[in-house]
Design the sequence.
């Protein structure tokens, strides 16, 4: 067993840390406050091939690997969970299904500009009445000559309204249940496609979370992704990978919060000495650091498995379950350790606590992760 | 155009501690980085290459085999190839011996228009190696460059002074030393990182691989004698530097003032 990163992964970490500190951290509080989508971060990430890390160069990617990508999301999320999820949703949910299931033509047309970062990607599965029960899709796609006509709506779509390319799921045959769901590549300018409500959220406030509306939206037949009726499988396998991204985001949030807190505990004095000298608080720090380390190993193992062609469905679910729980637990304690200051916007810690909560909810709630894990063990 | 960028891997002095007994740097566990001024030199070379794609940027460094990481990073930023002078025979070199070894390597490379160095390395702070290389090679030098223009066969540089600047023109070949005001260095690209390790364009030269004056390299070839190194007593003060953007710093200042019940 080998716990060392490769030299490439090590350098990716250093670069991402430097980039996050200098480019992303300075605007993190402002974009949270104003809910402004950080387009400049997307453009800067594109310049350094950060938007296509795990994909081969021939498809516009950086020629890197899944663990390096996980590390990138982790480092960004230490300072700005919004930027972390923009990268995660784009890479895991927007690009990966095209890489995995797309035809060569679709890869050239869509994956290349996405992986280069010239375009931004998104993934649209959730509907008002199809959340955890994703099989209950009400969006329909009907064949019409050379096209499919889509009708319905999606909600809570990350990068919605900002993305150029959407992976959209719709029922092509209601009688077949999950086998009647198909996946489509939809461009933002396709006729009949529009953006509805943008959510006003508790956390990751600068990430755009949108409603997508399809009213007789015309999608050319060549934009069917994978086989007809295989959409549900595409969605589930895509989410397996997406969970590694969100687990990395959760890990990053927890690490960022602990770093801020350690700094605070050394600076802040009460009863004539720094808070870091109080044993009760030291124990909290020790427990948090241990929890984070455990989360890190689960996340990296899931990414390692994916990179090496090993099964990762259960591993990704465990990583997300544990890392999200860690993020919530650690950020809550870190606010506590900051006392009254932690409750104010003078420190980043309250934002981190608000950001942490979503990691227990999206791309499968913690309860869904438990279902996946148990399903693997009890079948 | 051919540009040679001289680059040094240094311990990150923000993280470094001093051994209280020996008075020397404790290097164990301290991350190594590309010397900051050298990064500015590399960035400027890469900008010249961006504007003139037929430019070749070669990295030249002297150091232990581990310095390979710094050269890979430079390649990931966009340099074309890298040469690492690495040999026990170079160990213990002062600035004279270092510049002798590097100037010899540059002569061996042969074809160059600009030699670009950082002003000084953060672990030694001498600012001597760049100028010495120019003297060894017998070429003009412009130090403390904060702005650079490439003209037809010439360079025009703004050389920073404490209270102003000189505008200096020179024929090429010329040696330039960069200061941080020169530019904002780019990051290595992720694609560049994987490419740098895949293609491995770092060549290692020992003292036997090129012609170098062996009496003037390494510890024995170093005229400098270090009689004592020590940590100067820090001034007793309670100054705290507030970092970040002006908005963040102002915010932190208000917090500090509130904590002390001043406002």
Sequence:
């Amino acid at each position: 067993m080998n716990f060392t990163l490769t030299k490439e992964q090590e350098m990716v970490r250093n670069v991402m840390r430097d980039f996050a500190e200098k480019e992303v951290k300075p605007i993190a509080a402002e974009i949270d406050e104003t809910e402004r989508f950080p387009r400049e971060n997307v453009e800067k990430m594109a310049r350094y091939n950060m938007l296509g890390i795990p994909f081969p160069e021939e498809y516009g990617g950086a020629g890197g690997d899944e663990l390096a990508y996980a590390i990138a999301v982790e480092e960004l999320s230490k300072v700005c969970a919004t930027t972390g999820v923009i990268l995660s949703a784009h890479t895991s949910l927007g690009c990966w299904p095209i890489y995995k299931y797309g035809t060569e033509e679709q890869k050239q047309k869509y994956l290349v500009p996405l992986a280069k970062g010239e375009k931004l990607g998104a993934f649209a599965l959730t509907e008002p009445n199809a959340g955890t029960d994703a099989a209950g899709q009400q969006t329909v796609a009907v064949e019409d000559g050379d096209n499919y006509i889509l009708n319905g709506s999606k909600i809570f779509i990350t990068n919605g309204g900002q993305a150029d390319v959407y992976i959209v799921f719709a029922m092509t045959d209601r009688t077949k249940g999950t086998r009647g769901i198909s996946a489509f590549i939809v461009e933002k300018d396709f006729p009949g496609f529009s953006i509805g409500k943008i959510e006003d959220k508790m956390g990751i406030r600068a990430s755009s979370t949108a409603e997508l509306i399809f009213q007789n939206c015309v999608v050319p037949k060549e934009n069917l992704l994978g086989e007809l009726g295989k959409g549900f499988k595409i969605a589930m396998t895509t989410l397996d990978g997406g969970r590694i991204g969100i687990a990395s985001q959760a890990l990053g949030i927890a690490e960022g919060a602990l770093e801020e807190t350690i700094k605070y505990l050394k600076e802040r004095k009460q009863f004539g000495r720094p808070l870091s000298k109080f044993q009760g608080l030291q124990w909290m720090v020790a427990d948090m650091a241990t929890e984070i380390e455990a989360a890190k190993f689960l996340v990296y193992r899931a990414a390692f498995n994916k990179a090496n062609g090993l099964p990762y469905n259960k591993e990704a679910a465990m990583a997300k379950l544990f890392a999200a729980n860690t993020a919530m637990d650690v950020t809550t304690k870190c606010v506590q350790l900051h006392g009254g200051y932690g409750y104010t916007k003078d420190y980043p810690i309250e934002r981190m606590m608000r950001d942490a909560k979503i990691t227990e909810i999206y791309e499968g709630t913690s309860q869904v992760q438990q279902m996946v894990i148990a399903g693997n063990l009890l079948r | 155009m051919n540009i040679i960028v001289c680059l040094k891997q240094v311990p990150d002095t923000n993280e470094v501690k001093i051994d209280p007994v020996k008075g020397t740097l404790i290097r164990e566990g301290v991350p190594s980085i590309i010397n900051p001024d050298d990064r500015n030199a590399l960035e400027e070379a890469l900008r010249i290459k961006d504007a003139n794609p037929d430019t070749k940027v070669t990295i030249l460094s002297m150091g232990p085999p581990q310095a390979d990481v710094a050269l890979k990073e430079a390649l990931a930023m966009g340099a074309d190839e890298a040469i690492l002078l690495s040999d026990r025979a170079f160990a213990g070199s002062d600035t004279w011996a270092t510049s002798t070894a590097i100037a010899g390597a540059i002569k061996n490379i042969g074809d160059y228009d600009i030699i670009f160095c950082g002003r000084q390395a953060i672990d030694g702070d001498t600012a001597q190696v760049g100028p010495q290389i120019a003297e060894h090679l017998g070429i003009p030098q412009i130090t403390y460059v904060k702005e650079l223009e490439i003209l037809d066969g010439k360079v025009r540089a703004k050389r920073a002074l404490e209270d102003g600047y000189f505008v200096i023109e020179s024929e090429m070949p010329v040696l330039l030393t960069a200061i941080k005001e020169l530019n904002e260095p780019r990051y290595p690209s992720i694609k560049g990182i994987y490419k740098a390790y895949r293609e491995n364009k770092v060549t290692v030269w020992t003292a036997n691989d090129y012609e170098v004056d062996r009496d003037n390299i390494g510890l024995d070839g170093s005229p400098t004698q270090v009689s004592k190194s020590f940590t100067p007593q820090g001034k007793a003060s309670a100054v705290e530097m507030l970092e970040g953007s002006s908005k963040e710093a102002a915010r932190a200042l208000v917090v500090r003032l509130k904590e002390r019940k001043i406002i």
Observations:
- DSSP finds ten helices and ten strands in chain A.
- Chain A has a mean pLDDT of 97.
- The radius of gyration of chain A is 21 Å.
